[in-house]
Amino acid sequence: MTNSSKKQSSLVRKRTRTSRPSSDARPKAWPNEVTYLKHPLYSDALGFEDLAALRPSIQLAKTCQKEVEAVGPSTLVRIRVIRSSTSHPAFGQYGLFAAQQLPPNSFIIHYLGFVHTPSDSDSESKYDLSLVRELGIGIDATHMGNEARFINDYRGIREEGPNAEFRDTMVGGERRMSVYVLPEGKSGKGRRGIRKGEEICVNYGKAFWKGRLAESEKHQNSDI
Fold it and tell me: What is the per-residue pLDDT across 102-142, written as a single tens digit (0 to 9) for each?
């Protein structure tokens, strides 16, 4: 391994050391069974090729939006249990809401979790996002993550569509997946941004929506 390769590997490994924070470092309403992360936690199964992909070449990095590290708990969002309407797909579960006015095209939060390979992925996870698609590297927030794990799909919540979206970003030279308010020109629906107290919703796709409906029905039936 060359000196530059060793340096690249050590830089990624250095950022993987994440310990469980104390309870006072967690956001309000954070569930006890989920570990709160302030940085990504990387799987030991990640090989050198995987680690290199997480710190891409300068040319590839130019295609990703640059962001600074945003260590939580975030002051931009609040976690809430959905109690407003029984018709809400996540009624009795969690949602993520704006703690202040969020302007169009502005950064909201990084999506943090367990960064894994295909070999240690969870096929049953509902919190797994693709990070490096060509290598099957994903971010799973099932058992550990940050506030972003509570963002719901817009279907059944907002008739006008999502008000936020995922974007590939670079933080300190590392690839991340982050959440942004929709820009003004996108479908003409992002002109006002996201108001304080408004639920933050993205488009996870129809497959996720079908799974969410099944989960919601199961959850509501268990309360009867």
Answer: 999 999 999 999 999 999 999 899 999 999 999 999 999 99
Cis ω before 104 (30° cut-off from 0): no
For the entire predicted model, the pTM comes to 0.80
| pLDDT confidence of residue 20 | 44
Q: Between 219 and 155, whose confidence is greater?
A: 155
Angle 89-40-196 (CA atoms, 0-180°, nearest 5)? 45
Tokens 């029905």, located at residue: 217
Residues 102, 96: Cα–Cα separation, whole Å: 13
Q: Alpha-carbon Rg of the chain, whole angstroms?
A: 18
Both tokens of residue 17? 């050391």
